Each structure stands twice: as C-alpha cells, then as structure tokens.
Amino acid sequence: GENVEQHPSTLSVQEGDSAVIKCTYSDSASNYFPWYKQELGKRPQLIIDIRSNVGEKKDQRIAVTLNKTAKHFSLHITETQPVDSAVYFCAPLNDYKLSFGAGTTVTVRA
Amino acid sequence: NAGVMQNPRHLVRRRGQEARLRCSPMKGHSHVYWYRQLPEEGLKFMVYLQKENIIDESGMPKERFSAEFPKEGPSILRIQQVVRGDSAAYFCASSTGLAGGPDEQFFGPGTRLTVL
C-alpha cells in the first residue's frame, strides 16, 4: 500500500511569515494530490489540490508544488494569519483511495 | 445543494453493543467512502461502496464491521459488539464517480463514537 510521510509534524510561525509542509509518498501510480485542513472537531476540508500533469498551482495565499519524479508535493502558505492555525493533511490518491499523512499541526502566533 | 450528511454526530455505546452510523452522500453522488480517524492521527481508508455494491473493503476489520449502500437510503457502517478500541471519529465521503480522471471526495461532518 501507499506509504505517506509528512514533515514537519508541528510548525509554529509568526503571523505574516510563510509555512511550508512537505509530503512524500511511495506509490508512483498516485495521480491526484490534495491538501486538507482540519480544525478541532471538524471535518477535513479540501484547501487545494493538484493533478499529476501539473507542477504547481496557486490559490491566493496557498500554493501546492508537485515533483512526481521524486514523489513529493508541498503545501505553501504565505502571509499566515491566526485563522490558518489547524492540522493539515496531505492525502495522495491512487485510483479511489486517499492515503492520509499523519498531519502537521500549524500554529500561527499573533 | 446539501453536503454530505452523517448521523448521529455523537454516539455513545457500552462495550458489546452495536453501533450504526449513517451517511447520506451529496445529491448526484453515487460513490461513498468510509474513513476512520483515531485521536491525533490521519484518516484511514475503510471501505468504498457504490449503490448496492462493495467495491473495496480492504481497510475494514474482517470481524464485527460491515457496510452497505442500498439502492434507497443512506449508506450504513455497522459495528457489532463494540470494544473501547473502536472509539474514533468515522468520516464518510462521497464523489460523483464520473469518468475522466481523479474524483474529488467531499467529506461529511463525521460521527464521533465513544465506547464506554
């Protein structure tokens, strides 16, 4: 099965700084790479995704970059705000199965 | 368009009882997935269903757990004779299942099961 690792497991940043989370995966057949944000007690919410034929995608303060050769993709959050504090999960998809990483707890200090 | 609905949101059971978790997919979605999340962990795939068919149940324990998605009504995840280790958040997701590429999954609010 897919082996997914996220780094770092926790990340504390000053408001306004950038945050970067990296996700590595093992299955070269994975073809869809989403990032989810989960607040305490809530559902995972898709914040950005990228498909295997694209190297980078940006949506306002959030961007995702993909390196299929090296089998990793990263989440970039710029100009962080306290509302960005949450747990972030990568979840590469192979066929229909999402394989979630262990999560990165991001804390944005005001 | 209502999102994915799950009920109950919270469920408390004593050891040995049965738990039934329900999931109504988004309108127009015919594919349902169940995931389990233990405290401070990522979600783990359990089962993938289409109407009246179990496509992949490789992530579901062989005993005590079963799932269905009948022609009419919600998908049901059933846990018999619950044990404390079953305490977790159970999330359902749905997708359209349309051909043409990877299928975005939309998550429900989850059912938090506590086994006393």
Q: Widest sheet of chain A: strand order?
A: 1-3-8-7-6
Shape of chain A: globular
| Rg of chain A, Å, rounded | 13 Å
> Based on helices, strands and strand pairing, what is the structural class of chain A?
mainly beta
Count of helical segments of chain A?
0
Oligomer kind:
heterodimer
Sketch the major β-sheet of chain B.
Answer: 7 strands, mixed
Q: Give start-end ranges of low-pLDDT stretches of chain A.
A: none
Radius of gyration of chain B: 14 Å
SSE series of chain B: EEEEEEEEEEE
Shape of chain B: globular
Report mean pLDDT of chain A, rounded to a whole number. Answer: 95
Give the number of DSSP strands of chain A. Answer: 12
What fraction strand of chain B? Answer: over 45%
Roughly what fraction of the amino acids of chain A lie in strands? over 45%
Written description of the protein model:
The complex is a heterodimer of chains A (110) and B (116). Chain A has no helices and twelve strands. By secondary structure, chain A is an all-beta fold. In chain B, 0% of the residues lie in helices and 48% in strands. Chain B is globular and about 45 Å long. Chains A and B meet through strand 5 and strand 11 of A and strand 4, strand 5, strand 9 and strand 10 of B.
Characteristics of this structure?
heterodimer, A: 110 residues, mainly beta, 5-stranded antiparallel sheet, 5-stranded mixed sheet, globular, B: 116 residues, 4-stranded antiparallel sheet
In short:
The complex is a heterodimer of chains A (110) and B (116). By secondary structure, chain A is mostly beta strands.
Detail the topology: elements first, then pairings:
The complex is a heterodimer of chains A (110) and B (116).
Chain A: E1 4-7, E2 10-14, E3 19-25, E4 32-38, E5 45-51, E6 56-59, E7 62-67, E8 72-77, E9 86-90, E10 93-94, E11 97-98, E12 104-109
Parallel strand pairs in A: 2-12
Antiparallel strand pairs in A: 1-3, 3-8, 4-5, 4-9, 6-7, 7-8, 9-12, 10-11
Chain B: E1 5-7, E2 10-13, E3 19-24, E4 31-37, E5 43-50, E6 53-56, E7 65-68, E8 75-79, E9 88-95, E10 106-107, E11 111-115
Parallel strand pairs in B: 2-11
Antiparallel strand pairs in B: 1-3, 3-8, 4-5, 4-9, 5-6, 7-8, 9-10, 9-11
